[in-house]
Amino acid sequence: MKPETIIKVISSSGEPYDVHFEFSDNKFKVHCNCPAGIYGKLCKHKTGLLGGDSSLLFNKTDYEILQQIHEVVKKSKYTEIMTSYNILLKEIDAAQKKEKKIKEQIAQSLKTGIDIS
Ligand SMILES: [Zn+2]
Question: What is the pLDDT of residues 8-64, one digit of tens each?
Fold first, then answer.
């Protein structure tokens, strides 16, 4: 793995963004120059490339290097954290559906009448 790699990703504006990967002996860092990424925030470009999503590639010739990065990342703590994060997102989604259902039940009850006996 080269210590520094830049992969260009497609963007909605047409101008590609640069995702920088920095590898050292025991760490990797990722930076993206998209509007969210410049503030160090998590963006779909970082997570997408780390997840091996080749549909983001601006230059399809970066496919090989993306696979190499993905292989390294797969064995890292990142995968563990992302797994927890994705589980959390599913739980939030399920809770939101439940909330919506209960809210509808409350609204319906107020319409049809609530038993006060
Ligand atoms: Zn980005």
Answer: 999 988 899 999 999 998 999 999 999 999 999 999 999 999 999 999 999 999 999
CA distance to 35, 75, 84, per residue, from 18 (Å): 11, 24, 27
- Give me the number of domains the chain comprises: 2
Kindly give the distance from the C-alpha atom of residue 101 to the centroid of ligand 1, in angstroms, as a whole number: 35
Query: What is the residue range of 88's domain?
Result: 77-112
Q: What is the pLDDT of residues 71-115, one digit of tens each?
A: 999 999 999 999 999 999 999 999 999 999 999 999 999 999 999
Q: 70 and 16, same structural domain? A: yes
86 and 57 fall within a common domain: no
CA of 117 to the centre of ligand 1 (A): 58
- DSSP sequence for 32-54: E-STTGGGT---HHHHHHHTT-G
Residue 117 resides in a domain: no
- Whether 51 and 104 share a structural domain: no
Q: Are residues 12 and 52 in the same domain?
A: yes
Tokens of 74: 């797969």
Q: How far is the CA of 14 from the centre of ligand 1 (A)?
A: 14
Q: Tell how far the Cα of 7 is from the centroid of ligand 1, in angstroms.
A: 11
Question: What is the CA(94)–ligand 1 centre distance, in A?
Answer: 27
